[in-house]
Amino acid sequence: MESILNKILQLDQSIFYFINKNFQTDTLDKFFSLVTRLGEIPTIIVICILLFIFGRYKEKLVAVFILFTSYIAFFLAGTLKGIINRPRPIEVYPDISVIGTAHSPAFPSTHATLIAVIATILCFKYKKLSFVLIPIAIIVGVSRIYLGLHYPSDVAGGFIIGGLLSMLFLGIEVLIKNLKDL
């Protein structure tokens, strides 16, 4: 078992170094610094306000659903960070490129968790947007690695947590609708 864990950690480090060291340019620095903001609370609030103001009844409900799920996901990710307490890459590898700052432990990536919430809910509610939303979520995840703030497994963990939590609440929503129809 320890051998498998070591191989996973080596793969995690290799992917991290590949993304963080091989593609550094001023243009990508600016691009990923901007894109990473899509996984932040202020962006989620703006998206939800726009859905609420300009949307119909369905969009208003989706906005509330995203806010509620994001709040729970943010709390869950923060709790897991405190429990797992994984050091950030800069704390382990001082030779990496880091853009930005972060003060909490690394696992899971809150940015990845939150963008997964948005993408999952919007993909289920508006299936035709999936071809845009999924790549955006992946790019946000890659931004966290590129910026030197997370390992790939932190991002993957965030995607899993945000996606599963969203699907759980989407499932509860369907269950409630089905119970109302009885």
Give a count of the beta strands, DSSP E runs of length 2 or more. Answer: 0
- CATH class category: Mainly Alpha
Major sheet summary line:
none
Judged by helices, strands and strand pairing, the structural class is mainly alpha
Helix percentage range: over 70%
Q: Number of helical runs?
A: 8
Shape: globular
Order of helices and strands: HHHHHHHH
- pLDDT < 50 stretches: none
Termini separation comes to 49 Å
Mean pLDDT: 91
CATH architecture: Up-down Bundle
CATH level-4 homologous superfamily: Phosphatidic acid phosphatase type 2/haloperoxidase
Rounded to an integer in angstroms, the radius of gyration calculated over CA atoms is 18 Å
Q: Strand share of the residues? A: under 5%
At CATH level 3, the topology is Vanadium-containing Chloroperoxidase, domain 1
What count of domains describes the coordinates? Answer: 1
Report what the structure shows:
The protein has about 180 residues and is mostly helical. It has a single domain (about 35-180), classed as Vanadium-containing Chloroperoxidase, domain 1, CATH 1.20.144. Helix content is about 75%, strand content about 0%. It has eight helices and no strands. It has helices at about 1-20, 25-35, 40-55, 55-85, 90, 110-125, 130-145, 150-180. It is globular.
